[in-house]
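Appendix B, record 7
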Amino acid sequence: MMAAGQRLPFRDGTFDKIVCTEVLEHIPDDKGSISEMLRVLKPGGLIAISVPAYRPEKVFWTVSWDYWHSPGGHIRYYRPGEMLANLQSTGLEIYAERRRHTIQAMYWFLRAVVGKRNENALILRILTKVTSLYYWRRLRALEYLEALMNPFMGKDLVFYGKKPVDPAEGS
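Structure tokens (predicted):
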């Protein structure tokens, strides 16, 4: 099933949990989509939303005109605190926030440097193999390195929230 993020074909409070990863930076009405996700989330329901982190995204946009002028690509990046404010303005209770995917940040930085359409560059092929090995084999050394680097270089910012329960409605 396909549907516009601003008009989801579900009744209010249909879902216990919602995951929205790497979508909002691609669509014109990100705030409308957030409101719509909360509409279909049950009171007390959990939601995880990820968007590109500001620092890596700003670097990619600065290094490569092509990175942010590709059809279907990112149409915005979120300044520090902006997405958190957007989510909290809806009444969503954010209980955790973290950065993830430093290895992907390195990959996309190199992609921006060598050219977004130059997927066959040697350095990208090597990093793709390392990344694949990392994700398929879960190498402890790379997991540890990424965990250390995520607060500084993590490509994605992930918010974990809970839809408040209206005391008049109960749980």
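Remarks on this record: The chain has a mean pLDDT of 90. Residues 64 and 112 are 5 Å apart (CA to CA).
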